[in-house]
Amino acid sequence: MSDTPGIVVMGASGRMGQMLVREVQAHPAMRLVGAVERSGHDWVGKDIGIAMNGPAAGVYVTDDPLEAMAGAQGVIDFTTPQATIELSVIAAQARAVHVIGTTGMTDEDLAKLDAAARHAVIVRAGNMSLGVNLLTQLTKQVAAALDEEFDIEIVESHHRHKVDAPSGTALMLGEAAAEGRGLDFREAYVAARDGITGARAPGSIGFSAIRGGDIIGEHDVIFAGAGERIVLRHVASDRALFARGALKAVLWGQSQTPGHYSMLDVLGL
């Protein structure tokens, strides 16, 4: 048996899933041992390589996460909150590192992940890129340095197929800004504005979401004061950067004790 960790990719047919499969196959320090799709999907039962219009990989797509996780050391999961919660139980039983890029999770969902993290390593982030995680730290620092005379607005743009808004990255940035200001994020959060909303509430953190075309991901954190603005920005031009971050996280998790970690932990930030 190889000493390199075996990795399972969830949602293997999706754009991110296929990217992850390719990145895992090309990585010298890990190997692909499983690919999972929902029941009834056309790819179930097919070799993942052939399904992706490439050479056979020797790994067959399954709709059974438990089967896929047998003998695996890690799972990378960019799916849906319900699927992620269900998988967290299986990954915890297998003591496999569970790297989660799923967004749109509720406080109840996160509590369930915390329960699973008592038995296994979970690394969860709204965004896996190094640049975005640096932006998160910068946002916190700038928010701490500026008082409420500077209003905070977060604008995010994504492709037309994204189903949740604001993005997980935008929420992560908003939480960092709230932490820097010493605010309760849930009280400061303003999801959208429409109609006669009245003047902007002091201390609020506003969000705007743009959806269109094939935009991979753009995030602006705007600190707007009287006579000046500070804009912190990250633009993703290659979806592979998220996959590479996830691979870094699953390798990092192999040497950690059970717990619920973030990419800031992985990157030492």
From TrEMBL:
Residues 131-267 form the Dihydrodipicolinate reductase C-terminal domain. Its EC number is 1.17.1.8. It catalyses: (S)-2,3,4,5-tetrahydrodipicolinate + NADP(+) + H2O = (2S,4S)-4-hydroxy-2,3,4,5-tetrahydrodipicolinate + NADPH + H(+); (S)-2,3,4,5-tetrahydrodipicolinate + NAD(+) + H2O = (2S,4S)-4-hydroxy-2,3,4,5-tetrahydrodipicolinate + NADH + H(+). GO terms for molecular function: 4-hydroxy-tetrahydrodipicolinate reductase; NAD binding; NADP binding; oxidoreductase activity, acting on CH or CH2 groups, NAD or NADP as acceptor. Pathway: Amino-acid biosynthesis; L-lysine biosynthesis via DAP pathway; (S)-tetrahydrodipicolinate from L-aspartate: step 4/4. HAMAP family: DapB. PANTHER family: 4-HYDROXY-TETRAHYDRODIPICOLINATE REDUCTASE 1, CHLOROPLASTIC-RELATED, DIHYDRODIPICOLINATE REDUCTASE. This is 4-hydroxy-tetrahydrodipicolinate reductase. It comes from Tropicimonas sediminicola.
